[in-house]
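Give me structure tokens for this 307-residue protein.
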Amino acid sequence: MTRKALVVRLPFGLVLDTPVLSASGCYGAGLEGAAFGDLAALGALVTKTVTPRPRAGNPPPRIYETPCGMLNSIGLENPGVEAFLANDLQRALQQSRPLILNVGGESLEEYEAIVERVQGCGAVALEINLSCPNVQGGALPFSTDPAACELVVRRCRERSTLPFFVKLSPNVSTSLLLEVAAAAEAAGADGLTLINTLLGRAIDWRRRKPRLALGSGGLSGPAIKPVAIHCIASVRAKTRLPILGVGGAASAEDICEFLAAGADAVQVGTAQFRDPLAAVRLVQEVEDLLVGAETSASELTASTRAR
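Here you go.
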């Protein structure tokens, strides 16, 4: 078996050389990773969330390491869409990797505006972030209410010729997650991204204060992998939409577990804070593992769809 073991063909025409992608929020627009080595092996680069206007983010401290991951309360810090399109995007496109542009907002009007603004920018797809727990005081209006999710996705669909994935939250019950996913599909989403971070908190008991300035933050890293696998498998049983899995993947075994749960491709995020080229390294390790098992990435996912 050759490198074909890694090829992923998504139904809307996007072909990924490998199911291993970078995750939003951990690599900027890929430029930070490129400073450490060649990113050509990755299936795609997923940008940090870009919003219509510049955001300074939340006050520090806003990152705290946990035993099996990391809490963050960055708050979607970014230069705003105009500065991003003029600067980082142009350099990111020079990486010669498919670029999935993650976009966000805090209102229906902001989602409409940014989706419309980024059409034709050079990205192969969008990832619409409906589920960041570090803005609006932790409120998640578009990923905890199926009707609100359906409305925003339908409005984005009306304004986008680009395919897009909708990034959903694990901070709901399984039954509600399935309802929100179904609403996104009914409104025209081309795929789903599962999962965003889990709400968490750490406390400095000596000072009797939270470790993060705003109290709570989003937990990422290996600790949340079982939750991500559960959410992906649950949603896969109800939809044939492509799923980008994310949440704690740090090894080739992890990547294959995500695929077997029903993900079509897997984003590597927090692992890259320990090793900036973790995702690049995992591409070869995943290939070796699949070849040894005499299967392919697409076959693993297909077997899940067939259940």
